Amino acid sequence: MKPSPPSLAYRAQTILQARPRLAAGAAAVGALALSALVNRQLARNAERDNPPAGQFLEVNGARLHYVERGSGPPLVLLHGNGSMIEDFESSGLIDLAAENYRVIVFDRPGFGHSNRPRNVVWTPAAQAELINSALQQLGVSQAIVLGHSWGASVAVALALKYPKVAQGLVLASGYYYPTPRPDVVALSAPAMPLVGGILGHTLAPILSRLMWPLVMAKIFGPPSVPKKFSGFPKEMALRPSQIRAAAAESALMIPDAFQYRDQYANLTMPVAIVAGDQDRLVDIDAQSARLHCEVPRSTLRRVPGNGHMIHQTATGVVMSAINEVATDR
């Protein structure tokens, strides 16, 4: 016996019950689409209001933005995750160093005005190869290399792979040894396939704007954010493309520390390690102090009362470390 078809009243009731869910789903999709359009326009506005300050190199399929200033021994500056050239610019370090050095500052791939080709996993090793090729184009065969935070990992990779190029290192607030980091999971979300792309273009920029004051307090603290940092283009850092690049580097942070943790003794050039003794992002005893014990020609400067953004809050100390490495080569 065939079952009787649903009654007209039952079908009508089912449709009425589903309608609120369909309406809610449509509203959510519409809100995401609208936020994506707004974020795209904000990104365009940010790029219009903050045009490139330097020049470009075409290197291995990447378009690399850099600023060059001063004359003397070459000094390369590599910024941290989520940052760009303007971080060093606003700190005053570029102008200070340019008095005695040929300063070359790169927007690393995906940050500032440099693009980030999708066909490459931009590990420290991949970025080191890119920076080395860029330096060759610029006629630089030897340089002092300063890396801050994630940029310190790139500096180390460059020195290990091209020791004749990196004649000396200044490593500021770096992360060198794998440790449990639950925060990395959340920070890596916009780099996930598919879902990450949606998050990066919709919710992530909004959440990042809301969290900006808390993030700044954490990375600068315990000192307050200096007034000079007002020159940093916040809206450039909140573009979907840069959020995705930052998320990808967060995801790579621990695996890359695993890869390099046993190689630091091979750094035979002079290395100046600089870190704030109250860094709230990185445990300097587990990172900078341990690295100092393993690198033969290293010095360690623990800066009292300073946090992660050591180049901003103790610019003179970082400059002194650069001069120390230059003298010791």
Report on this model:
By secondary structure, the chain is an alpha/beta fold. The protein has one domain: Alpha/Beta hydrolase fold, catalytic domain (Rossmann fold, 3-Layer(aba) Sandwich). Helix content is 50%, strand content 15%. It is built from 13 helices and 8 strands. The protein has helices at residues 8-49, 85-91, 93-97, 124-137, 150-161, 183-188, 195-201, 203-220, 234-237, 240-260, 285-294, 310-313, 315-328; strands at 55-59, 62-69, 74-78, 102-106, 143-148, 166-172, 271-276, 298-303. It has an 8-stranded mixed sheet, sandwiched between helices. A hairpin with a 2-residue loop joins strand 1 (55-59) and strand 2 (62-69). Helix 4 (124-137) crosses helix 5 (150-161) and helix 7 (195-201) crosses helix 10 (240-260). The chain is globular and about 85 Å long. The mean pLDDT is 92.
Q: What strand line-up does the widest sheet have?
A: 1-2-4-3-5-6-7-8
**Major β-sheet annotation:** 8 strands, mixed
Number of strands: 8
What would the average pLDDT be, to the nearest integer? 92
CATH overall fold name = Rossmann fold
CATH architecture: 3-Layer(aba) Sandwich
Could you write a compact summary of the structure shown?
This protein has 329 residues and is an alpha/beta fold. Helices cover 50% and strands 15% of the residues.
Notable characteristics:
329 residues
SSE arrangement:
Blueprint: H1 8-49, E1 55-59, E2 62-69, E3 74-78, H2 85-91, H3 93-97, E4 102-106, H4 124-137, E5 143-148, H5 150-161, E6 166-172, H6 183-188, H7 195-201, H8 203-220, H9 234-237, H10 240-260, E7 271-276, H11 285-294, E8 298-303, H12 310-313, H13 315-328
Helix pairs in contact: 4-5, 7-10
